[in-house]
Amino acid sequence: MSKKPKAKDVLIDTASRLFMVRGYCGVGLNDIIEESGIPKGSLYYYFPEGKEQLAIAAIENTKRLVMEDIQRVFTDKENLIQALQAYVYTLAQMFGEGEKPIGSPIGTIAGEKHSTSEPIRLACESTFKDWQAVYAKKFIAAGYDEQQANSLATVFHALTEGGILLAFTMKSGQPLEQIAEQIPSLFTERPIEK
Amino acid sequence: MSKKPKAKDVLIDTASRLFMVRGYCGVGLNDIIEESGIPKGSLYYYFPEGKEQLAIAAIENTKRLVMEDIQRVFTDKENLIQALQAYVYTLAQMFGEGEKPIGSPIGTIAGEKHSTSEPIRLACESTFKDWQAVYAKKFIAAGYDEQQANSLATVFHALTEGGILLAFTMKSGQPLEQIAEQIPSLFTERPIEK
DNA sequence: GTCTATAAGAGGATAGAC
DNA sequence: GTCTATCCTCTTATAGAC
């Protein structure tokens, strides 16, 4: 389990990075071959079903990595608001640093393939559900009831996916920073007259 | 100005609809030809620069249509919270009806082309800025100062784009409904101790 | 198990008839 | 102005040598 062949992992790593930024259709197998240095034959040895199978592996890889990121931040900050805010700031940092924005969620793939590849859509759906479950758990720990927690988890997740999209499009971390700043104001509990 | 040739408009309409759902790379010119019934030669007559030019026209078309939707809802509901909530409900309705979700924002294209086509990225950026300006104006009318209004406009926009992505991926209007329900709780003003 | 060469087809784009 | 037939490149996928 610890001595896996490396080629497969390199492929998944490279594919994850490229897909997350340019989307599924925007990345050719040739791009992955070139960037990873792994020849095409090996790709089809490890992923006999081709591009779609590799994409699903990449999605599952990203799912795990992002889950770890979320858990780390949430463990570090016990307070709900601080935890949510800290996580969005980590997203913002990816853009601010001018470096390659890696590890960003799978929104790009989900957006273009939900209607044309059911296996990919299912992989994205499962990923989204798992992330939201972590968010929901944090809301519950902060005292929300289950239904409210689920809705707020959806809200927070939509904020991150939307924020990442805006940051990419604006070529700036500013949208994510603005969102992070507003988090205390958005998620602080208070009585609402129905 | 009122008696424009129809072929061009049909092309833009068809392209808008297909691009919004399946993204830029996911839609071939052949798909647009087939669905619109306009032959390829005519497409290149109206859009000599090809697919990219057509996509930009589609983005600008969607920008205008969505802007009108927003303005209509915002004019109808003077109250900030009610206006924001009503708009998200209109987005949710597109999915709930089981019909083709048309008129949805351009997130899909923005997500995949921001890094590979600067003209398209700019068209998306301009669109996003215009929509956000309308949101910001509504926040200002409700008494927020300009900086706060801009940040909250970003927040609301991210919520809608993220919500649409989740709805597509989950094949359900539920995420958008959950977001709509939470809007009063999210955007109701209250004192926060800094 | 790993890699190269090539097939088979789809994609965007063009030329030129009408 | 409108449409058809065709080109060329790029993409995914495969066959088979090593």
UniProtKB/TrEMBL annotation, chains A, B:
<dbReference type="GO" id="GO:0003677">
    <property type="term" value="F:DNA binding"/>
</dbReference>
<keyword id="KW-0805">Transcription regulation</keyword>
<dbReference type="InterPro" id="IPR009057">
    <property type="entry name" value="Homeodomain-like_sf"/>
</dbReference>
<dbReference type="InterPro" id="IPR054156">
    <property type="entry name" value="YxaF_TetR_C"/>
</dbReference>
<protein>
    <submittedName>
        <fullName>Putative HTH-type transcriptional regulator YxaF</fullName>
    </submittedName>
</protein>
<dbReference type="Pfam" id="PF00440">
    <property type="entry name" value="TetR_N"/>
</dbReference>
<dbReference type="Pfam" id="PF21993">
    <property type="entry name" value="TetR_C_13_2"/>
</dbReference>
<keyword id="KW-0238">DNA-binding</keyword>
<feature type="DNA-binding region" description="H-T-H motif">
    <location>
        <begin position="28"/>
        <end position="47"/>
    </location>
</feature>
<dbReference type="InterPro" id="IPR001647">
    <property type="entry name" value="HTH_TetR"/>
</dbReference>
<dbReference type="InterPro" id="IPR036271">
    <property type="entry name" value="Tet_transcr_reg_TetR-rel_C_sf"/>
</dbReference>
<keyword id="KW-0804">Transcription</keyword>
<feature type="domain" description="HTH tetR-type">
    <location>
        <begin position="5"/>
        <end position="65"/>
    </location>
</feature>
